[in-house]
Amino acid sequence: MKNFLEISKEVKQAKEQGKPIVALESTIISHGMPYPQNVQTAREVEQIIRDNGAVPATIALIDGKIKIGLTDDELEQFGNSQGVAKVSRRDLPYILATKQKGATTVAATMICAELAEIQIFVTGGIGGVHRGAETTMDISADLEELAQTNVAVVCAGAKSILDLGLTMEYLETKGVPVIGYETDVLPAFYTRRSDYPVNFRADEVETIANTLKAKWDLNLQGGAVIANPIPEEHAMPEEVINTAIASALKEADDKGIAGKDTTPFLLGKIKEITAGKSLDSNIDLVKNNAVLGAKLAVELQNLNK
Ligand code: PSU
Ligand code: MN
User: In this structure, are residues 158 and 167 in contact, taking their beta carbons and an 8 Å threshold?
Assistant: First the structure.
């Protein structure tokens, strides 16, 4: 296992000094945002994490290695590459074995973070149960990963390209706690609210850290979803986003998009339909998650001392 891990200087040093570390995914860089906003956002998110007392570790697959932390050059090169593979649990071994560039999804990033002993991971949104999954069986591997891998994922909820109700049911079945930070309901990524209550509301970061510690002290396998609503001033009008989602879903259906292409296709369409407005919201919510994730990593590190 150690052969595959390549830990950056910054992250190595953080480990030696016992500093809190926050994992970041790379599918959001390669498949979630266009160049150069993707690289710029990734850099800014890393800096926000440093400014809030933790050390960022962006995770990606390069040359047969799992990179835990990218240098500035690596980030630039990665974000500017065409044809990077989207890598979930299933894809990880093949992409490593064939030494292709791979962008890790939430599921794959959780796996790599756990290998590197990182417990907190910040992203934009998680995958979930797709609408119509009762016939397509399209359920993101992210949910299975949350059920088995000991990493907490800070996100802005999930996009309503998914069936949020079924996603919550699935997480409940798998015993994955969904904790709302300053919210009673699951946020829907671009908007602060959905119709679905979170399992627990926490207004203090300390409460979240204590909950995670209790879970893992009890050896309850699996992660947690820390749902952090997009700040009001960056949220999108509900009608605008719902219309965009409906038309993206219809086009995906007409074109017969399936499997791992579905999520990137829908995200791309929504961006197109909203003339880039969704991208601005997306960037803002990730930054907002970075602040919370860093604070949570600091708090958890203090508890573990
Ligand atoms: N949802 C978003 N933005 C994203 C993704 C999901 O709002 O960038 C990416 C994440 O990397 C997530 C993956 O893990 O898509 C889920 O893909 P799938 O539905 O194929 O499991
Ligand atoms: Mn899928």
Answer: yes
Confirm or reject: Cβ of 263 under 6 Å from ligand 1: yes
| Closest ligand, as measured to the CA of 139 | 2
Q: What residues are labeled active site?
A: 25, 159
List of E strands, the chain:
5-7, 21-24, 55-62, 65-68, 85-87, 102-104, 120-122, 152-155, 178-181, 200-202, 224-227
**229-281 pLDDT tens trace:** 999 999 999 999 999 999 999 999 999 999 999 999 998 999 999 988 899 99
Is residue 91 within 8 Å of residue 108, measured between CB atoms? yes
The residue nearest atom 7 of ligand 1, judged by CA position, is: 125
Q: Give the orientation angle of helix 277-304 with respect to helix 37-51, to 10 degrees.
A: 30
Which of 124, 91, 94, 93 minimizes the C-alpha distance to 106?
A: 124
Task: Please tell me what DSSP assigns to residue 80.
Answer: T
**Count of C-beta atoms within a 10 Å radius of residue 128:** 28
In order of their start, the domains of the chain are: 2-304 (3.40.1790.10)
**Residues 174-219: tens digit of each pLDDT:** 999 999 999 999 999 999 999 999 999 999 999 999 999 999 999 9
Residue 227's Cα: distance from chain center in Å? Answer: 11
Q: Radius of gyration (Cα) for the chain, nearest Å?
A: 18
The single-letter DSSP state of residue 69 is S
Q: How far apart are the C-alpha atoms of 2 and 248, rounded to whole Å?
A: 42
Which of 224, 228, 230, 231 is CA-nearest to residue 210? 224
